[in-house]
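Forum: Protein Structure Q&A
Topic: Joint prediction for protein chains with partners

I've read a bunch of threads here and the consensus seems to be that you should model interacting components together rather than docking separate models afterwards. I'd like to see that in practice. Below is the full input, 708 residues plus whatever partners are listed. Could one of the regulars post the assembled result?
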Amino acid sequence: MEGASATVISVEELQLAARNHALPLEALAHSITPLGLHYLLIHFDIPLVDASAWKLAIGGLVERPLTLTLDDVTARPARTFAVTLECAGNGRALLSPRGASQPWLYEAVGTAEWTGTPLAPLLREAGVRSGATEVVFTGLDRGVQGDVEHLYERSLTLDDALRDEVLLAYAVNGQPLPPQHGYPLRLIVPGWYGMTHVKWLQSVTVVGEAFRGWQQEIGYRLQQSEDDAGTPVTRMLPRSLLVPPGIPDFFSRERFVPAGPCVLAGRAWSGWGRIERVEVSTDGGATWSDAECGDAVSPYGWNGWRFEWDAGPGEYELCCRATDAAGNTQPLEPEWNLGGYCNNAVHRVHVTVS
Amino acid sequence: MEGASATVISVEELQLAARNHALPLEALAHSITPLGLHYLLIHFDIPLVDASAWKLAIGGLVERPLTLTLDDVTARPARTFAVTLECAGNGRALLSPRGASQPWLYEAVGTAEWTGTPLAPLLREAGVRSGATEVVFTGLDRGVQGDVEHLYERSLTLDDALRDEVLLAYAVNGQPLPPQHGYPLRLIVPGWYGMTHVKWLQSVTVVGEAFRGWQQEIGYRLQQSEDDAGTPVTRMLPRSLLVPPGIPDFFSRERFVPAGPCVLAGRAWSGWGRIERVEVSTDGGATWSDAECGDAVSPYGWNGWRFEWDAGPGEYELCCRATDAAGNTQPLEPEWNLGGYCNNAVHRVHVTVS
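Posted by a regular:
Agreed with the consensus. Here's the joint model:
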């Protein structure tokens, strides 16, 4: 594990790693992540929800507050599209020092097909009143973080909340949401890091001032120190990952590859624009070659890529890096911040060819 | 985390914890574990299987070797039952020192409804020859463990393989197996620890001598030292787990419970007999009270249990312990062994009531 071999992990971090599931890297071979392999980050406990009693309240600065049952939501016009979701803390455990939180390595990502009803028509039906600036999304999950007891809540600006692709989703990969993905209803905001996609939604509240909840004002900010007000984490930076070739050692996850032609393949995504380029290095990032990019699985989902490597005997550090249409490229080394967010440094996989 | 607060985890262990998913303890509330919450332990990589090309070979010491397509398997008589599966390494990270392997805490368990065809009639059709003593189950997953490259393989004695409840399973919770659970076919051996339930089955081979593959002879043995031949890990020892009450702190997973009546609930199981008793302690195991046991979800699945606790303000260490019909009771402290297997010491959950 390049850059982290001397790291030790605390038991508190291990407890989080046990409950928050990562995508095993070989599952990048699936263009749509099978249920049960998609990453999960669950701050508090997964709520037990009785859908027959559940209701969604749409209120705040609106003319006509709405209360919707699950049947009301599923009876509305539906859209389905594949969306790549990545945790904002992906890569945190590769930083040193790192924030005391979920110790992700590379794999906190997944791409699923989400089905839901667009939010904007609902907000228009409710009638957003003048003075409205943000929309607050409140989940049913309650707990303590940073010594503050709160429900999980995040906001979007009114403009972002009204974007066409923002969904209230009740199905994933053609099935009702399983409990861990937000049953019965969650927010989907394509392009944004996972903290935005509030699960177990209970209310949508239009407000006229900046939302100051813990998960918005304290959590999910890029800060250089505790005193730094920082900037909010929003859209996903470009990232690419590769399917580790060959076979693994159980414990070290070192890889063994037979000499000869070897197709390297993986996925790449960005929340800032389409993927324009994926490059591969077999020498730890000293030299790079272009990979062949496939089509994205949707306007909001990742691209496949492949690279034909003629693997001669030896030791290699395979790397990949993506560049998006906005001109963002993955850095070779992590860019440190206090909370350990948005570490999109290139993926490195050590292999032995023989 | 009682007994482990000074422990540090290596990055290699963290890599395993990221890919091998645990059951979040609050999901014990579901009598049948939803897909995506069941524990996973995957030694090597999840194979990518083309089911249309896949075949199962049944051979070795048989009169009539069989080759079956997936359609052949699913056309045979089917049985469905709930089975509790637990990893043999569950609890390993609570041991000190511990084997270098997957660092499970308490949560490597799940109960799903498996559908498949019984193995015994297939072996009878193939015609087991005299001299046969064991049946070897071979998966498609290949890798290196203990410096030995091998396919994942395990054996059962012929008597165990012929038990009525042993299934070749192709569905879980009413759906085709997802890749991570062994698509397209896996072995299910109710009552045994998870290493027995070989996934991604490609062959079933009847043999006339003791199988000596790595996962049988080196792995999964209860040893006191490297020189100790040890004894094989087989059936699940009794264990009970409780749904942590109240709400959690995100990072520490400490629990906060309001004072007053509080129902404690959980699950208990054993591979050696039905659950006869579950006890609860609120003082770290000094004193115990009987919990009320519900029915098992199946002859091979866990029991629910509940206990009404009148929670006064203070700090508590909640514990639960199960006793099975064979007279096995969970110990208060772990029983150490080199590989870190079968640690069924009582579950301990620290809570603050206010």
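The mean pLDDT of chain B is 96.
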